[in-house]
Prior knowledge:
- This protein is an alpha/beta fold.
- The protein has helices spanning 8-26, 39-57, 70-78, 91-99, 113-116, 138-141, 157-174, 177-188, 198-206, 218-229, 252-258, 261-270, 274-282, 290-295, 308-311, 315-323, 328-336; strands at 28-35, 61-68, 85-87, 119-128, 148-151, 194-195, 213-217, 233-236, 241-245, 248-250, 286-287, 305-306.
- Strands 4, 5, 6, 7, 8, 9, 11 and 12 form an eight-stranded mixed β-sheet that branches. Strands 2-1-3-10 form a four-stranded mixed β-sheet.
- β1 (28-35), α2 and β2 form a beta-alpha-beta unit.
- α2 packs antiparallel against α13 and α3 packs parallel to α4.
Amino acid sequence: xxxxxxxxxxxxxxxxxxxxxxxxxxxxxxxxxxxxxxxxxxxxxxxxxxxxxxxxxxxxxxxxxxxxxxxxxxxxxxxxxxxxxxxxxxxxxxxxxxxxxxxxxxxxxxxxxxxxxxxxxxxxxxxxxxxxxxxxxxxxxxxxxxxxxxxxxxxxxxxxxxxxxxxxxxxxxxxxxxxxxxxxxxxxxxxxxxxxxxxxxxxxxxxxxxxxxxxxxxxxxxxxxxxxxxxxxxxxxxxxxxxxxxxxxxxxxxxxxxxxxxxxxxxxxxxxxxxxxxxxxxxxxxxxxxxxxxxxxxxxxxxxxxxxxxxxxxxxxxxxxxxxxxxxxxxxxxxxx
Length: 337
């Protein structure tokens, strides 16, 4: 029985207030912590996903972004940056979060298609117009007098893939780790400055006019052509390069706490849809969808690639041997001084 002092009008007003609060509670914000050169991609992905989420659920979602060197971003999440999802450019950065505090599920690769990597890219060379130094393959980057611009392999996935691409090339050519080490040492001797991330390396090469060649991801080279001018640079595809898938994961501990698990999972699932794959191709990342890839074959020339795991070894061993404190990379850097 309703007490006499509560009017029907009052009950109606209370119902409207509760309903309004419920609707407001369904309007959510999530944070995607990503790597350096994915900024422009997600500027297009986020509103497209928000529109689909609104159409499907009737609710509003805002996707905020954080960008930086991939490994630095993973460390920031481990130190408390509350990412609902992470979209990185190398698997070890997500494994790091799975192994440190269980922020990400151990089986994160099985949560989405293609080992949770909606697209891939590869390392290429960007040279100045006319290619005045005649740079055609990895061997040219180790020649005396060639200025090579790459990001720091200790802080950037872009830089790490460059290091491993050079190592894999030399490993196949020489047939042994000693030959690969000598080659990578010679190449990094030609690196005048190490920026923290891929975008910083791009700025050094294009705006500060430092170096003869920038080793970067294929998509970054296309973006430079759009922003700086295709008349200033040329892309060179080496004879062999590395496959660099970009994996994604829900940061379960954060999403569960914030009540965003459903929308976070939907956001990452959206990346595998034909609609999102077309946006991915537009931004010069190689899509996984066969039909979308075929429709954009002129943008993505065939190139021989290898994966880290098949040629060099499991990521866990690669990280320990090459990038741990006093590992091979640190030894090479010390010998350079």
